[in-house]
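hey
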């Protein structure tokens, strides 16, 4: 259903207004890096609000805590010894709903709801810390009730993440229109560092406190207080907020490159999170020490993304974006198979491979989002919701699929991850045809 809704972008729409002419003109002026931003908003300081630095600090801190507190599920299912198939289904359903709502939250954000969505979204995402105490009451509940309660918590977490992602990333990108890719990359890097620390931090607290992870809600509340004071993005004008309809159909003029970017993000999302879901089992199967299994390997995978995506954003702003994206995707495919097929190599070699592979694959996400935003800056949040939310919602069954495949004796964890690498091949094909989609849009 979600894919059908998105692919309806390909239908011809007659009433596209003057905005489409503007998009075509800007695309013709800058075909390699899509469109330069038009009609930039005034700086936050000029609008009488907090400085750009404070706003970005608040957005980055919110992204860190939201992704840190919401990224614990793969290690939690390992610590709580959950069934891989059921755990994969919970991950799929919660992500499908939460991420699938991102375009709707993007529309709300473009109408002036950025601050509300960021604060409420991060608060809801922090409820994942309740999984620790829930794991202690499993014996007092039926399996259906226990897994159902965990599903409910994960639904709240994923809806919260769906609320703040499109609004916060568009607010970060709009802080400096000449350096959009850099700001988007730094913003996503902050979330990636939170994502990277989530499993190690959660497992540490889980083990040291006897699963009482609710104690982690205290520092989260302090970060939310900081965000309440500083997270005040410049609101769109009343005319912009009420005059634009912000529908998916508004993007008909850029449907070809946006469709390719959407499918590319589907591949990247399934690929990136599929290996994360099975990473504890993969490392344990190769007899790596417990400290690597319980978060360190995952940290290096995601930390590589956070480190390299800033470099990727700078390169994408400076050079032709599609070439940089193709290079990172191709390198990611090579190092991914090196990780899966290397076997029990020395731990420091595996950590290095995880860092580089995760960095190359993860860097593709912000570059693709920034390219999408340049296609039509007036719908930045909606485009972010499509490329960061709807695409990853469609990709969410990857967790369930690799979990079920890993349980098959003839396939196992390694075989499941080898099959997962096929989506990386499709991602490389899609990014290779992206320039053709852009040129087709220019000719219309």
């Amino acid at each position: 259903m979600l894919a059908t809704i998105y692919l309806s972008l390909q239908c011809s729409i007659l009433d596209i207004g003057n905005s489409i002419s503007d998009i075509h003109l800007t695309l013709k002026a800058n075909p390699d890096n899509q469109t330069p931003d038009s009609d930039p908003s005034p700086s936050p300081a000029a609008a009488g609000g907090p400085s750009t630095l404070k706003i970005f600090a608040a957005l980055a801190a919110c992204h860190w805590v939201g992704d840190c507190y919401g990224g614990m599920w793969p290690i939690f299912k390992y610590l709580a010894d959950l069934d891989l198939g059921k755990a994969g289904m919970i991950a799929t359903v919660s992500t499908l709903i939460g991420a699938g709502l991102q375009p709707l939250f993007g529309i709300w954000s473009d109408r002036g709801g950025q601050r509300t969505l960021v604060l409420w979204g991060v608060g809801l995402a922090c409820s994942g810390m309740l999984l620790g105490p829930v794991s202690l009451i499993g014996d007092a509940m039926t399996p259906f009730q226990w897994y159902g309660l965990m599903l409910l918590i994960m639904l709240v977490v994923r809806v919260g993440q769906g609320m703040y992602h499109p609004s916060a990333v568009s607010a970060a990108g709009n802080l400096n229109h000449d350096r959009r890719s850099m700001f988007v990359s730094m913003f996503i890097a902050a979330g990636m560092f939170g994502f990277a620390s989530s499993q190690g931090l959660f497992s540490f607290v889980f083990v040291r406190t006897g699963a009482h992870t609710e104690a982690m809600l205290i520092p989260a509340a302090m970060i939310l207080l900081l965000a309440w004071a500083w997270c005040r993005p410049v609101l769109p004008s009343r005319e912009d907020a009420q005059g634009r309809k912000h529908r998916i159909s508004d993007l008909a003029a850029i449907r070809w490159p946006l469709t390719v970017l959407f499918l590319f993000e589907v591949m990247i999302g399934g690929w990136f999170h599929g290996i994360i879901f099975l990473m504890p089992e993969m490392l344990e199967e190769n007899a790596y020490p417990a400290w690597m299994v319980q978060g360190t390997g995952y940290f290096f995978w995601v930390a590589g993304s956070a480190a390299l995506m800033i470099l990727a954003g700078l390169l994408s702003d400076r050079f032709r974006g599609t070439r940089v994206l193709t290079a990172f995707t191709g390198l990611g495919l090579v190092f991914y198979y090196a990780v899966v097929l290397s076997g029990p190599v020395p731990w420091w070699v595996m950590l290095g491979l995880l860092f580089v592979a995760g960095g190359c694959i993860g860097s593709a996400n912000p570059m693709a989002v920034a390219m999408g935003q340049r296609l039509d800056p007036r719908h930045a949040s909606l485009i972010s919701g499509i490329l960061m939310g709807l695409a990853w919602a469609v990709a969410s069954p990857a967790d369930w699929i690799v979990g079920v495949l890993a349980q098959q004796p003839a396939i196992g964890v390694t075989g499941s991850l080898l099959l997962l690498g096929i989506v990386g091949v499709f991602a490389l094909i899609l990014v290779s045809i992206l320039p053709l989609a852009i040129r087709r849009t220019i000719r219309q």
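DSSP finds 19 helices and no strands in the chain. The chain has a mean pLDDT of 80.
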